[in-house]
Amino acid sequence: MDDTRLKKRSLSQEDLFNLSELFKLMKPRVMSLVIFTCAVGLLTAPNIVSTKDAIIGILFVSMGAGAAGALNMWYESDLDALMTRTCLRPIPTGKVNRNQALIFGVTLSIFSVIALDYFTNRVSALILLLTILFYVFVYTIWLKRRTPQNIVIGGAAGAFPPVIGWTIATGSISIEPLTFFLIIFFWTPSHFWALSLYKSDDYKKAKIPMLPLTNGIESTKINIFIYSLLMIPVIIFPYLINFVELTFLIPSLLLTFYYNFLCYELLNFKKNRFNSKKAKAIFGYSILYLFLVFVLFLIDKII
User: Fold this and answer.
1) What's the pTM?
2) Could you give phi then psi for residue 270, rounded to 5 degrees?
3) Was domain 20-171 assigned CATH 1.10.10.60?
4) Lowest mean pLDDT: which of 34-43, 146-155, 293-302?
5) In contact, 46 and 170? CB cutoff 8 Å
6) Where in the chain is the domain with CATH 1.10.357.140?
7) Helix residue ranges per DSSP H, 77-216
8) Rounded to whole angstroms, how far apart are CA atoms 70 and 105?
9) How do residues 221-266 score in pLDDT, each as one tens digit?
């Protein structure tokens, strides 16, 4: 009797362990950003959605994002094994095999899209499907190993969730959610290129053509600064279309100017060299920056 109980207990623990590893395939950190930006898109829409419907919609969008993350890890498991930043992911460590990741990712993709279509609307489901397909086939399979512009074009995938949040509430696309898309799209390059500067050895080992390796450090610093400057008109845009008021514009511009300053400091460092601390500071601040900008959308909506 005791042996049977022990077997059942160990089996239960093993099942929980497998579920935990499958969950890691979904890139929880990325999912948290998806949940947050999707919620902002939903909450700032003109239509009021019940708490239950909002939670259900955001849940399926996050599942779709997780499915895309799992398929990304499936395809890039060989690269992940080479980089210190990713070598402890479930597939390189042997905790999940590639077939399991593929089946999990495809199943979750299909389920999340169908469920979002059933519980919300067709427009939201189609955009979620587009997001998954774009991230997997355009970014992961086509662009990432071929061009240093991978993160620029691929950044579109990460810019869709707040748009989906808006369409969950409204059932249609308008110019307002385009502001969310543009902010994330133009924010992504400087964010990831700052990371690629101090993780360039990782990308070199994996032979991923990130900008510091293909175009050099100086070109990367210039591009980071340029994309930080592009955030100024992007931040002003929602004010110009009367989507937000000065309660959003002024603090978000101040946040942007500080981002510009950090990127200028990086650019102004010695030619063809970079300060690792400044690159890390830009990467860290960029995450806080995006979070605060989206919080300001909510504050402006409340006011």
Assistant:
1) 0.91
2) -50, 140
3) no
4) 146-155
5) yes
6) 20-171
7) 77-80, 98-119, 122-133, 150-159, 161-170, 176-198, 200-206, 211-214
8) 5
9) 999 999 999 999 999 999 999 999 999 999 999 999 999 999 999 9
Q: How far apart are CA 27 and CA 22, in angstroms?
A: 10
Structure tokens at 272: 């063809």
Cα(79)–Cα(70) distance, integer angstroms: 14
Q: Measured between alpha carbons, how far is residue 108 from residues 19, 70, 90, 270, 279 in Å?
A: 14, 9, 17, 48, 36
Q: Is the dihedral of CA 216, 221, 225, 227 positive or negative?
A: positive
Sequence ranges of the chain with CATH classification 1.20.120: 175-303
- Of 160-169, 178-187, 210-219, which range is least confident? 210-219
Three-state secondary structure call for residue 89: coil
Nearby residues of 204 by Cβ (< 8 Å), 6 or more positions away: 213
Return the C-alpha torsion angle 147, 153, 159, 161, nearest 10. Answer: -80
Q: Which two tokens stand for residue 283?
A: 């990467």
Task: Kindly tell me if the per-residue pLDDT of 17 is higher than 70.
Answer: no
SS3 113: helix
Q: How far apart are CA 121 and CA 139, in angstroms?
A: 26
Q: Which of 186, 211, 182, 185 is nearest to 196 (CA)?
A: 211
Q: For residue 50, what is the DSSP state?
A: -
Burial class (CB in 10 A: 0-12, 13-18, 19+), 297: buried
CATH code: domain 175-303 is: 1.20.120
Q: CA–CA separation, 96 vs 102, rounded Å?
A: 10
